[in-house]
């Protein structure tokens, strides 16, 4: 499976880079993620639960960073296992560049899967991977953006009605998109 894409993130490049390297941010943004642990500056371990068609399993894996050029780019290699459900491994290149008041994230990834996951069919796996990537970017962008600013007129309404709640919508990053996709495919 090959996947390329780009996302615009309405935050400065340094903030996007920091978010992509923060285990707490990753855990909150990756669908089904149970744990993300930084083993070193260039290695992470994670556990997540994912379902692709009739195959649902808990996946354990590791991610290694290479060619790290903060806050511009890096190369990822990953491998994960879901026991009887199958395995996944692959690599991705991620690049960040300033664009206006935000950051453009570009990624290119390839992955191989085996076991029951490979039997499910590549169309189903590709669809689930893209859906998970979209969900990751929504969560990541919302997490980096923080609460939406409140207009002065809205503050008066808010004071009269009680606490103001914001919706979690957004788009964003590639390193994690690839990270999520590969773990889902693992």
Task: Describe, in plain words, how this protein is organized in 3D.
The chain has 186 residues and is α+β, with helices and mostly antiparallel strands. The chain has helices spanning 13-20, 23-29, 116-120, 122-145, 152-161, 175-185; strands at residues 2-9, 33-40, 43-52, 55-69, 73-81, 87-99, 102-114. The protein has a single domain, classed as Alpha-D-Glucose-1,6-Bisphosphate, Chain A, domain 4 (2-Layer Sandwich), CATH 3.30.530.20. It has a seven-stranded antiparallel beta sheet. Strand 5 (73-81) and strand 6 (87-99) form a beta hairpin. Residues 148-179 and 181-186 have low confidence and may be disordered.
Overall 3D shape: globular
The CATH topology name reads Alpha-D-Glucose-1,6-Bisphosphate, Chain A, domain 4
How many structural domains?
1
DSSP, total strands: 7
Percentage of residues in helical conformation? 25-40%
Question: How big a fraction of the residues is strand?
Answer: 35-45%
Question: How is this structure best summarized?
Answer:
With 186 residues, the chain is α+β, with helices and mostly antiparallel strands. The chain has helices at 13-20, 23-29, 116-120, 122-145, 152-161, 175-185, and strands spanning 2-9, 33-40, 43-52, 55-69, 73-81, 87-99, 102-114. The protein has one domain (2-149, 166-185): 2-Layer Sandwich (Alpha-D-Glucose-1,6-Bisphosphate, Chain A, domain 4).
List the helices and strands and how they pair.
Blueprint lengths: L1 E8 L3 H8 L2 H7 L3 E8 L2 E10 L2 E15 L3 E9 L5 E13 L2 E13 L1 H5 L1 H24 L6 H10 L13 H11 L1
Antiparallel strand pairs: 1-7, 2-3, 3-4, 4-5, 5-6, 6-7
Helix pairs in contact: 2-4, 4-6
